[in-house]
From TrEMBL, chain A:
A cellular component annotation (GO) from this entry: plasma membrane
Subcellular location: Cell membrane
Annotated ABC transmembrane type-1 domain residues: 74-289
Upper taxonomic lineage: Bacteria, Pseudomonadati, Pseudomonadota, Alphaproteobacteria, Rhodobacterales
Matches recorded under InterPro entries: MetI-like, MetI-like_sf
Topology within the bilayer: Multi-pass membrane protein
Name used for this protein in its record: Spermidine/putrescine ABC transporter permease
Short name of any one Pfam family annotated for the protein: BPD_transp_1
Superkingdom, natural source: Bacteria
PANTHER family per record: INNER MEMBRANE ABC TRANSPORTER PERMEASE PROTEIN YDCU-RELATED, INNER MEMBRANE ABC TRANSPORTER PERMEASE PROTEIN YDCU-RELATED-RELATED
Family (UniProt): Belongs to the binding-protein-dependent transport system permease family. CysTW subfamily.
Biological source species: Pseudothioclava arenosa
TrEMBL record, chain B:
InterPro entries hit by this protein: Bact_Polyamine_Transport, MetI-like, MetI-like_sf
GO CC annotation, single: plasma membrane
Name of the protein described by the UniProt record: Spermidine/putrescine ABC transporter
Species, as recorded: Pseudothioclava arenosa
GO BP annotations, alphabetical order: transmembrane transport
Highest taxon in the source lineage: Bacteria
PANTHER family assigned to the protein according to its UniProt record, in alphabetical order: PUTRESCINE TRANSPORT SYSTEM PERMEASE PROTEIN POTI (PTHR43848)
SUPFAM superfamilies attached to this UniProt entry: MetI-like (SSF161098)
Domain ABC transmembrane type-1: 60-248
Keywords: Cell membrane, Membrane, Transmembrane, Transmembrane helix, Transport
Protein topology in the membrane: Multi-pass membrane protein
Family: Belongs to the binding-protein-dependent transport system permease family. CysTW subfamily.
Subcellular location: Cell membrane
Transmembrane segments: 12-39, 59-84, 96-120, 126-147, 180-207, 227-248
Length: 299, 268
């Protein structure tokens, strides 16, 4: 039977797949891709009073990159995000290892569920609770005081100043993103063929060496995913610098928000956002390239 | 021995994850205007204040509308994408799915900020509706992750049997596929609802003058007098999230059991 070309196309797997994915794809193109392109275009426009002058210029980028405030804020964001990533991934790895290797299979989903709950519950409230915990009259300081440890001539003279420091921002973010790091590492560990570990030990490697030479390299795809999934959103965090840093230690997101909303300089805000994302993308790509040899076997 | 020390570490880690949340109810019922030790007496005053607050009531209303709509729309979009992704090969699949899943890693400020620019330049007024647009965008990747498990553990031969017995594409989906993935769909809706209910940044950018629960909470955090009430509100919000998540987890597991798949654990 001669089928017309059109009906062959209509019944092909490719056409069915594309047709099926199209509602979601169109939604993402209209409300994600198009806005991101718009912000990219805006970053080359000029800011007029209450309007945007559509005239291509590099002025915004020159202004952004020659601004020492932007550079120090970007540097602070990178340092905080780097520290947070290091802390979350290092602390999460043993937990993921425990979940994957030491738990009976039927207990795994309960543990995973317990780990994911805090991650889904109000981010804002969790960040704010750290402010309550670390504050000058907060839970830690008032707790120490009621234990009689703070006061003249006591162990600690004055309540400890913890808020409005980079350290406090780091602790809060590390806590907020902890479950993000566990899940990808856990998934990578679950994929490891257990007989490889036995083979390693049968061939005379110690437990520690088997871990270093078999488990760790095979877990690297998960570690790389964990690093990226923590690092990228942390750089763009708005709430924590605002609440825990007291607005005195802004990060990139606070700068973008200030330009877009209160200052209403959309081209400048766009240029900051694009600059920051470009830096993040470069670092991420560099990090992936660095770990290429581990990722190649992952497919 | 290595084993018990790892278990103790994991338990300590879990405690660290939950420690801040455990403080919520303690201070929500504490009869003191500042959040500090030692605790005073027991009180329900903060909960009473919460129920008497008009702005808060409006914020709750808005948030429920937004979260409900987000749950439905994100899950519908998730069904299309998960079905296409788990059943078909098509050109451009990688980039298309990549774009759809991008909000998982993209900082929310980029999503909120760029949407704000477009909406304002197109001339759409900010409202509850614009928040829904943004929330659907960020919730869809999560619904896809859940629905993928539901669809990929589905046995293709069941659908083929229906085709062979003369059912069409749509009726096969309605009679065979849908009932089998229904638990996954319910789980996905609950997750999308929870994500939207708790989301702050996008609502902060796109809600205009309408309060949502998180933006209302954020606006009140500056006033020390309001903090005990916020603790009470937080207690309710966290309790609600945990209940919704527990139901979602129940349905996710039931769905996997129903389609005969293996539980890989977790939502992602």
């Amino acid at each position: 039977m001669a089928q017309s070309a059109w009906s062959r196309i209509k019944h092909s797997e490719a056409a069915n797949g594309l047709a099926l994915v199209s509602p979601t794809a169109i939604y993402a193109i209209l409300l994600l891709a198009a806005p991101l392109l718009t912000i990219f275009a805006f970053s080359f426009f000029k800011d007029g009073y209450l309007t945007v002058i559509r005239e291509v210029t590099l002025e915004n980028y020159i202004a952004v990159w020659s601004d020492p405030i932007f550079r120090s804020i970007l540097l602070r964001s990178l340092i905080v995000a780097g520290l947070v990533t290091l802390a979350t991934v290092a602390l999460a790895f043993p937990v993921a290892y425990f979940l994957s290797f030491k738990l009976r299979p039927e207990r795994k989903s309960l543990w995973l569920f317990l780990i994911t709950i805090p991650f889904w519950t109000s981010y804002l409230i969790r960040v704010f609770l750290w402010k309550v915990i670390l504050g000058y009259n907060g839970v830690i300081n008032s707790g120490l005081k009621s234990l009689g440890l703070i006061g003249d001539g006591r162990l600690i003279e004055d309540p400890i100043q913890m808020l409005n420091t980079v350290g406090a921002i780091t602790v809060t973010l590390a806590h907020a993103y902890a479950p993000f790091a566990i899940l990808p590492i856990f998934v990578a560990l679950e994929k490891i063929d257990r007989s490889l570990l036995e083979a390693g030990q049968d061939l005379g490697e110690s437990k520690a060496m088997t871990f270093l030479r078999v488990t760790l390299p095979l877990a690297m795809p998960g570690v790389v995913a964990a690093v990226l999934i923590v690092f990228i959103p942390t750089i763009g965090d708005y709430v924590t610098p605002e609440l825990i840093g007291g607005g005195k230690l802004p990060m990139v997101a606070n700068m973008i928000q200030a330009q877009l909303l209160p200052l209403d300089n959309k081209p400048m805000g766009s240029a900051i956002a694009i600059s920051a994302m470009a830096v993040v993308a470069l670092i991420s790509l560099g990090f992936v390239a660095m770990n290429r040899r581990y990722l190649r076997g992952a497919k | 021995m290595k084993l018990p020390s790892l278990r103790i570490y994991a338990l300590a880690y879990l405690l660290f994850l939950y420690a801040p949340i455990l403080l919520l109810p303690i201070f929500a019922f504490n009869d003191g205007t500042i959040i500090a030790f030692p605790l005073k007496g027991f009180t329900l005053e903060w909960f009473g204040q919460m129920f008497a607050n008009d702005t808060l009531r409006r914020a709750v209303g808005n948030s429920l509308i937004i979260a409900g709509s987000t749950a439905v729309f994100a899950t519908v979009l998730g069904i299309f994408a998960a079905r296409a992704g788990s059943r078909f090969r098509f050109p451009g699949k990688g980039p298309i799915m990549g774009l759809i899943m991008l909000p998982l890693v993209l900082p929310e400020i980029m999503v909120g900020g760029s949407l704000l620019l477009v909406l304002l330049s197109v001339g759409i007024e900010l409202s509850v509706f614009t928040v829904i647009l943004g929330h659907v965008l960020i919730a869809t990747p999560y619904t896809i992750a859940i629905l993928n498990t539901a669809f990929s553990s589905l046995d293709v031969s069941l659908e083929e049997a229906a085709y062979d017995l003369g059912e069409g594409k749509w009726s096969t989906f309605r009679l065979i596929t849908l009932p089998l993935v229904l638990p996954g769909i319910i789980s996905s809706m609950l997750i999308a609802f929870t994500i939207s209910l708790d989301e702050f940044i996008i609502a902060f950018f796109l809600a205009g003058n309408e309060p949502t629960l998180p933006t209302y909470i954020f606006s009140q955090l500056r006033f020390p007098k309001q903090i005990p009430m916020i603790m009470a509100l937080g207690t309710c919000l966290v309790a609600l999230s945990i209940i919704l998540l527990t139901i979602a987890e129940y349905f996710r597991r039931r769905g996997i059991a129903k389609t005969g798949g293996k539980d890989t654990g977790g939502f992602l």
